[in-house]
Design a protein that fits this description.
three-stranded antiparallel beta sheet, 38% helix, Rossmann fold, 16% strand, formyl-coa transferase, domain 3, alpha/beta, 17 helices
Length: 409
């Protein structure tokens, strides 16, 4: 029996832009939801202009579709609607009335003046699940302030534990190499929406979801928060070492670097034997992880001296042979050339209306019966305006023309 995608039949009205909200709605679109992305006429999502690089057309020339925008908007339909006009706001309300989910990332209270806040839309669609993604949440002293990934990484503590130790060359605060706060917020928003959908099966009612970058970021710190709670001491930067496990870090070989991640005592002893230092596996200073953390500097100095004497790939082969987790440090091109990444088809090329193909990263969500379907490339600005007005709202050609005329003011 052929089964439909998991969220087939669910309609999402996407009023978000940049990354956190679009990441959430892309997840929902990958799962089969019909995601209608509302964009400002002539401008669209801010990230459309965040380049170079830009998508190439069929002749190899730059289009106006930025690589950044492409990363978070596949499987969606784009509608141009200016909520600052009466026509645009009215259209969005019409779409909200026939949608299951709405995702927005405007400032707290910013949509009320257009009649697009939760209270207004709940009145016309009590089943609507309305997800607000903001920097700081719907309440609290910072609620009305804008929030961006970079500033939240600093404010929320991540930069205090990311980067080289302060007493070593290159030490100091460092942000992550990708907007992890936006990404994890988008993932938490996805989880919240799916839970609200399940609850709606019981109650028949929607609800307002309040998802904040700061909240999500602080939750992301996981065991580092717990380290602080249980020690009373704020963790500090440890470079490429682990705060709680030794050895679990980068080592320099004679021709490069590799990661060694011993997660238990048997792996540690196997590692010591594989590098020709079995005695370190039985040394009373290092026989448990607790002791290894306590005597970290002494042990790491001994191990680092040994590791520098061998070649990276030789070490990896020896460690893999005895089941010790390890690996190289690849750049992104090397990562996509890796046979496991290729076997999992983590790059997909989707036909694009501008010509050529739009390369996108595959969803990591894998289902045995209802797999992710890559239906369409990230849309051109307003590509589906007429289609959505006709198919979803049943508007006539004359009504569509009238809307487009009024919406363009």
């Amino acid at each position: 029996m052929t089964r439909l995608p998991a969220l087939d039949g669910i309609r999402v009205l996407d009023l978000s832009r940049i990354l956190a909200g679009p990441w959430c709605t892309q997840n929902l679109a990958d799962l089969g939801a019909d995601v209608i992305k509302i964009e400002r006429p002539r401008v669209g999502d801010d990230t459309r202009a965040w380049g170079p690089p830009f998508l190439k057309d069929g002749q190899g020339a730059d289009t106006n579709e930025s690589a950044y925008y492409l990363s978070a908007n596949r499987n969606k339909r784009s509608v141009e609607a200016d909520m600052a006009t009466a026509e645009g706001a009215a259209l969005i309300r019409e779409l909200a009335a026939v949608s299951d989910i709405l995702v927005e990332n405007f400032k707290v209270g910013g949509l009320a003046k257009y009649g697009l806040d939760y209270a207004s839309l709940q009145a016309i669609n009590p089943r609507l699940i309305y997800c607000s993604v903001t920097g700081f949440g719907q309440d609290g002293p910072f609620a009305r302030r804008p929030g961006y990934d970079f500033m939240i990484q600093g404010m929320g503590g991540l930069m205090s534990i990311t980067g080289e130790r302060d007493d070593l060359p290159g030490g100091g605060p460092q942000k992550a190499g990708v907007a992890v706060t936006d990404i994890v917020t988008g993932m938490y928003a996805t989880v919240a929406i799916l839970a609200a959908l399940q609850e709606r099966h019981r109650s028949g009612l929607g609800q307002h979801l309040d998802i904040a970058l700061l909240d999500s970021h602080v939750a992301l710190l996981a065991n580092q928060n717990s380290n602080y709670f249980n020690s009373g001491v704020a963790p500090t930067r440890a470079g490429n070492a682990h705060q709680n496990v030794v050895p679990y870090q980068v080592f320099a070989a004679s021709d490069g670097h590799l990661i060694v991640a011993t997660g238990n005592e048997s792996q540690y002893r196997a590692y010591c034997t594989a590098i020709g230092a079995a005695e370190l596996g039985e040394d009373p200073r290092f026989v448990t992880n607790r002791l290894r953390v306590t005597n970290r500097d002494t042990l790491v100095a001994l191990l680092a001296g040994i590791m520098r004497q061998g070649k990276r790939d030789d070490w990896i082969a020896k460690l893999e042979a005895v089941g010790v987790p390890c690996g190289p440090i690849n750049d992104i091109a090397q990562a996509f050339a890796h046979p496991q990444v290729q076997a999992r088809q983590l790059r997909r090329d989707l036909p694009h209306p501008a010509g050529g193909v739009a390369p996108v990263t595959a969803s990591p969500l894998r289902f045995s019966a209802t797999p992710v379907v890559y239906r369409r490339a990230p849309p051109l600005l307003g590509q589906h305006t007429e289609e959505v007005l006709r198919e979803v709202l049943g508007k006539s050609p004359a009504a569509i023309a009238a809307f487009k005329a009024g919406n363009a003011r």
